[in-house]
Every structure is written in C-alpha cells, then in structure tokens.
C-alpha cells in the first residue's frame, strides 16, 4: 500500500463557460469529461487533463453559479501546480500569459525548480512548474489538438500546497497514516515565515508531492469561486482502496467509505486542519463511456443518472456558445 502521487485536484467555478474557455483555449488542456456534479446534477463537473485524462493530470471544476468570493486563509489547499516539460517551456508561458493579460508573477524559483505563479479569472491560485530536473513520476502527453505546442504544453499536476496554522497533525497524517516522506524544504515567499516543507510519495518528483505552508497570520479560509475543494491521491486499484478504508477505520478516522464515481472509485476524509483528502483509483478511466477520440464532446452521465438525461440537459447551459 503506497500512494502513487497526485490523482486530481477539484476546484470551484461560478462560470463554467468562462472556465472552459480559459483552461482549453488559453492553457491548452483537453476537456476529457463534461459531466455533472453527482451530488447536484443541475450543474457541471468539468475535467481538464492531458490527451487521455491519465491519472495525475486531471484538474476538475464543480460549477457553483452562486459561489461567492474566496477569502484566503489557513486550513486550505492554497495552491495547485501544473507541470510543463522544461525551463524553456516557462519562457513560452511567460509571454503567453502576458499576451492574454493573465495575472502572473514571471519566472521565479521554488526551491530547485523554476515556476510561474499566476491566477485564473476567478482568482484560482495556480503555478506552472518546470519538469526540467524531474526524476519521479512521469508526466502525461499533450493532446494533439491543443492550442499550445506539445513541447510546451501542460503535462500534468504538480505539487499541491496546503496552508495550515498547526503543522504537526497534518504531518502526522501525511507520514504515519498515508505514505508520504518529508524530503526537503524551501523558503516561503512571505518574509519571516517558516520554510515550506516538502513531502513526497511513490516515485516522488513533481507529480507526487505535497508542500506544507505554515501561516499564523491568517484567518480560516472561506471558500468560494476560485478555491480548491479537495486534492486526491492515486491508489492502484479498488482492492487496495478497500485496504485504505480499513486502515482509516482502524485509526478511527471518519471517512466516506468507498464511493463509486464511475470513472474511478473514491474514499474521502478530512485531516485535522480540516482539509479534504480523497484517495482515488487509477481506473477504469474516462474512456469507459466515450471513445478516446471524442472525450468531452458530449454530456456524459453515469448510469444512475442516464434516465434523467433530458431533464439534466435542459438545465445546463452550453459551454461553447
């Protein structure tokens, strides 16, 4: 039982149509699944990823049309990283983001790596991170029809940044309950703050890291549009996921039990600082109900919702009009 890395990150958008434009046209990611929030089928759940929606490349968004402003703070997933192949790719992105008037901080250093911190139109905190020196989990493959050249494009998710006030209980969950190891640190961008701690699991590298930031100067985050709902970690298969459920129960950690998300099986729980973690299986994947060449082109509904297709489609606004 060893977690393989980041599986996906799920965030919140108030404007699905604008979100679709930004992540496909400007960032060049592929919409691999256009489906519904299974807890609220009146709104979209959108999945952007590499060409095949491989585990570790999915950035997903729940549409919440009335979502308010995010008030950033502790007890949060405060940063999502997107991997690009090289340092030279970051130079391409620095110009591209400027050309599209995207708020960004230019190329800077994050430990031993080059990065660009930027925000989407709703304030989502994002980082492009170079895989120039990556020795761990391999990235995905840019879609042939991406608006961005393959050698420059986004190839997966990088480290997830957590911001907490008290690091000890989160560290305990990561290292004693899960399978992360503390492997390093780098200076905070906020003067006087503690170094950000790096944890990794599985093969390690940019696709298998969590970065832990300690902030005593912030209130608890009030999430809204532009915030992250949860981060998911990769589990090999359903049998192993069941073993993780048993491990959580033995440790008396409240959890959701096994949940069938159709494209993968999941398990949810909160660590002591209130951050929602998900464990998710690598399969069966997004080609379960669509041809690989036509992923995301039509509304995909899990079997439990198929009998409501007409009603559900009538409530959803088209993304590309």
From TrEMBL:
Protein name: Glyoxalase family protein
Superkingdom classification of source: Bacteria
Record Pfam families: Glyoxalase
PROSITE patterns: VOC
PANTHER family from the UniProt entry: RING-CLEAVING DIOXYGENASE MHQA-RELATED, RING-CLEAVING DIOXYGENASE MHQE-RELATED
Domain VOC: 5-131, 156-282
């Amino acid at each position: 039982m060893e977690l393989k890395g980041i599986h996906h990150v799920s965030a919140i958008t108030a404007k699905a149509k604008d979100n679709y434009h930004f992540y496909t046209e400007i960032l060049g990611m592929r919409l691999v699944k256009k489906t519904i929030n299974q807890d609220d089928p009146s709104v979209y759940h959108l999945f952007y990823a590499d060409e095949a929606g491989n585990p570790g490349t999915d950035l997903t968004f729940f549409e919440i049309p009335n979502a308010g402003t995010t008030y950033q703070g502790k007890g949060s997933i405060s940063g999502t990283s997107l991997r690009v192949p090289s340092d030279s790719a970051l130079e391409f992105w620095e110009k591209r983001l400027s050309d599209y008037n995207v708020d960004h901080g230019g190329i800077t250093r994050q430990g031993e790596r080059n990065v660009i911190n930027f925000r989407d139109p709703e304030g989502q905190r994002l980082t492009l991170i170079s895989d120039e020196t990556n020795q761990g989990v391999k990235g995905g493959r840019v879609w042939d029809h991406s608006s961005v050249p393959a050698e420059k494009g986004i190839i997966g998710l990088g480290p997830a940044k957590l911001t907490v006030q008290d690091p000890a209980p989160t560290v305990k969950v990561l290292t004693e309950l899960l399978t992360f190891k503390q492997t390093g640190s780098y200076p905070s961008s906020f003067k006087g703050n503690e170094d950000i701690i790096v944890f990794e699991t599985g093969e390690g590298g940019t696709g298998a890291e969590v970065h832990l930031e300690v902030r005593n100067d912030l209130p608890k985050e009030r999430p809204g549009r532009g915030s992250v709902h949860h981060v998911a970690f990769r589990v090999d298969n359903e049998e192993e996921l069941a073993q993780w459920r048993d491990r959580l129960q033995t440790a008396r950690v409240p959890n959701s039990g096994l949940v069938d998300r159709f494209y993968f099986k999941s398990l949810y729980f909160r660590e002591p600082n209130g951050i929602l973690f998900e464990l998710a299986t690598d399969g069966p994947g997004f080609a379960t109900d669509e041809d690989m060449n036509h992923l995301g082109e039509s509304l995909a509904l899990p079997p439990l919702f198929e009998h409501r297709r007409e009603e559900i489609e009538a409530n959803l606004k088209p993304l590309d009009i």
